[in-house]
Amino acid sequence: MKKYNVYETYKDGKEKLELKKLDDIALRSESNHNACIKVNTGNKFQKILGFGGALTESSSYALSKLDDDVRKKVLKSYYDKEEGIGYKFGRIHINSCDFSLENYTYVEENDLTLNTFTLERDEKYVLPLVREVKEISEGDLTILASPWSPPSYMKTNGEMNHGGKLKEECKQLWADYYVKYIEKMKEKDIDIWAVTVQNEPAAIQTWDSCEYTAEEERDFVKYYLGPTFHKNNLQDKKIIIWDHNRDIAYERAKVVLEDEEAAKYVYGTGLHWYVSEEFANVSKIHNEFPDKHLIFTEGCQEGGVHLGSWDTGERYGRNIIGDFNNYMEAWMDWNIALDETGGPNHVGNLCDSPVIIDTKEKNVIYNSSFYYIAHFSKFIKENAIRVESTVEGEKVYCLSCINEDNTICSVIMNESDDIKIVDLEIDGDKVSLQLKPHSIYTIKEVK
Q1: Where are the alpha helices (DSSP H) in 297-355?
Q2: What phi, psi does 332 have (nearest 5°)?
Q3: What region holds the Glycosyl hydrolase family 30 beta sandwich domain (predicted)?
Q4: Where in the chain do CATH 3.20.20.80 domains reside?
Q5: Is pTM, for the whole model, over 0.85?
């Protein structure tokens, strides 16, 4: 049998990602198994683009409360190629989002020419964070930019919050706004890889939000955003639609992607995890539109900070496995760090984060979610290929990939209260393992 290292994290354990050798933890005697996992590297699926998180104004603000060396250590824990957990994506907001200190835009009110456009506000928090992460990642930072709301004067409700729609007469102006944003960022040596059309376009939120029906999103891409990118030589910038939950993702994507004139501008569909875990809907989009990409653009634990919660980590693990096993190609968490309240958030929509900053004591708390993400992101490298893994057993999950160096990597999770005896078979090689209750394991081939 090939040689494998095993990295173990479990609820009652003090160590996280504890390194062991598979030979040392394999069961020597025959035991009655209650789960079976079969990995077949001959059946290959999608390429994995990588993992990341959101570099919001709130994340930057919370991190700014730390001493420089402590802040840098947090960022390295995510983005450093050797010391970190393998992040390469960063999602940022165009204009403000709820995880900003207040509503803001880049233009003065009623500017119909965009002559007042400036990124000066983002220079306070967002851009210094982006630059620091870019430096830590040795320039290997892939940036997705998403708008939560156009400026208030471009909207039917006259404000950035509480939904509303983009005014018909402002659609070209708003498309030009994306171009201006990308060009101004480029002047600052920050490349934008992709944009989403609109964060959560089906929701009327108390914070920065803007509604689009599927048809409105299709037509905005088809008649405004796509052609405007091409006219300005930005056709290499990817356009991602939907950027919302899985529940009606297929129905929304279908309206846009079955229209050839709109679809030619679209790179793929962005998804969030709120409302449901209907992973089959992700596969449904892939099966009907296999040439389009699937990107997980946001997920977090709602309802403020949940310090010490193991359920949060398991939610991440379950969702990452479910998404990638249904053709997702990249996976981005929400805020990379928040303060002890789960903010700041300018409308009080407090959430949890893998990293919590105690701004009073100036220390850092790593939640279970950080370690669960790490079990995937640190070991499944960019350009890995997902391979077939089948599971029999309750509350046991598995994701398997082959990295570019041809090493096998399987992440196995036991979400139950019980020990699981698992028969693991990788390309015919068999071994029995004991999975502790509420545990996650990364099994990585050693060359």
Answers
A1: 310-324
A2: -115, 125
A3: 384-443
A4: 50-379
A5: yes
Phi, psi of 95, rounded to the nearest 5 degrees: 65, -170
- For 330, the token pair is 């990249």
Residues of the chain with CATH 2.60.40.1180: 4-46+386-445
How far is the C-alpha of 99 from the C-alpha of 110, rounded, in Å? 25
How many CB atoms neighbour CB 231 within 10 A?
12
**Total Cβ atoms within 10 A of residue 237:** 19
The tokens describing 296, both together, are 């997980």
d(CA 350, CA 334): 12
The per-residue pLDDT for 390 is: 98
Backbone phi, then psi, for 238, in 5-degree steps?
-75, 145
Question: CA quadruple 60, 275, 323, 430: dihedral positive or negative?
Answer: positive
- Of 130, 261, 267, 255, give the one whose Cα is nearest residue 196: 267
| Per-block mean pLDDT, blocks of 10 residues, the chain (447 long) | 95 95 84 92 98 99 97 98 96 99 98 98 98 97 99 99 98 99 99 99 98 99 99 99 98 99 99 95 99 99 96 98 99 99 98 98 97 99 98 97 98 97 95 96 96
Name the class of domain 4-46+386-445. Answer: mainly beta
CATH topology assigned to domain 50-379: TIM Barrel (3.20.20)
Element housing 434 (H / E): strand 429-435
Output the pLDDT for position 121. 98
pLDDT value at residue 221: 99
Which pLDDT value is given to residue 320? 99
3-state secondary structure of 306: coil
What does DSSP say about strands 396-402 and 439-445: parallel, antiparallel, or unpaired? unpaired
Amino acid letter, residue 314: E
Give the pLDDT score at 23.
87
How far is 129 from 139, CA to CA, in rounded Å? Answer: 13
The burial class, CB within 10 Å (0-12 / 13-18 / 19+), for 169 is exposed
Query: Which residue's structure tokens are 């809907």?
Result: 281
Please state, in angstroms and rounded to a whole number, the distance separating the CA atoms of residues 447 and 445: 6
Q: What are the backbone angles phi and psi of residue 348, rounded to the nearest 5°? A: 75, 20
CA 234 vs CA 141, 170, 205, 225: distances in Å: 19, 20, 31, 10
> What's the distance, CA 326 to chain centroid?
15
Could you give phi then psi for residue 59, rounded to 5 degrees? Answer: -60, -45
Q: Residue 416 has which token pair?
A: 């139950």
- Identity of the residue numbered 331: W
The rounded distance, in Å, linking the Cα atoms of 243 and 170 is 22
